[in-house]
Amino acid sequence: MRVLGISGSLSQGSRTSRLIAHVLAAAGQHAGVDTELLEVSERRLVFCDGRRPELYEGDTRAVIDLVAAADAYVVGSPIYRGSVTGAFKNLFDLLPNEALRGKPVGLLATGGSDHHFLAIEHQLRPLLSFFRAYTIPGAVYAHNAHFQGDRLDETIAEQCRLLGDEIVRLAHALGGRGAGPAYPTIERKPGERA
Ligand SMILES: Cc1cc2nc3c(=O)[nH]c(=O)nc-3n(C[C@H](O)[C@H](O)[C@H](O)COP(=O)(O)O)c2cc1C
Known about the structure:
Layout: E1 2-7, H1 15-28, E2 34-39, H2 58-69, E3 72-78, H3 86-94, E4 104-111, H4 119-130, E5 134-135, E6 140-143, E7 147-148, E8 151-152, H5 154-174
Helix pairs in contact: 1-5
């Protein structure tokens, strides 16, 4: 099983990526689980321009394929302006509709304060619901007070471990099947499939 971490931060020394790495470390403790971290800051993604996903080239094409090939995910973004970063959203705009269908996804976000913790519920979760992914109930949200230099708040570290375990547990329970009833098909452009 391949669990992919997706970090939507473009900053150096990203706290979001650090938390995702914790979740991946916990998931990777389980037998048969490989993990990988995809950081949008390290890839050269073009902006989604509405073309069909298979028509992108280069790094953009490689990232689309990498995401589609994974079995489970932990996705995270810094909160920017009460929502995810533009870079994070752009990656999801590039993906084919079926890329995450029926797969488990853990959610995570970091912010400057606790003011925007519910952005996980009204920004991140609906985005993953579009893809008909199974999001893990509960999520990790950390803010400035949880990071003291290199030290991470132990409650947050424990939440990361739990999230990693739950992603693997749900992936096993699903056994690669099922995504519930289909939504109506959404075309990228009239006459073009998604
Ligand atoms: C452009 C910008 C907008 C931000 N907007 C918010 C916000 O709306 N709410 C919040 O809690 N933090 C906000 N922050 C703070 C970041 O979410 C926070 O520092 C985060 O932990 C950075 O994560 P990173 O280290 O992974 O990049 C903002 C930061 C930037 C640079």
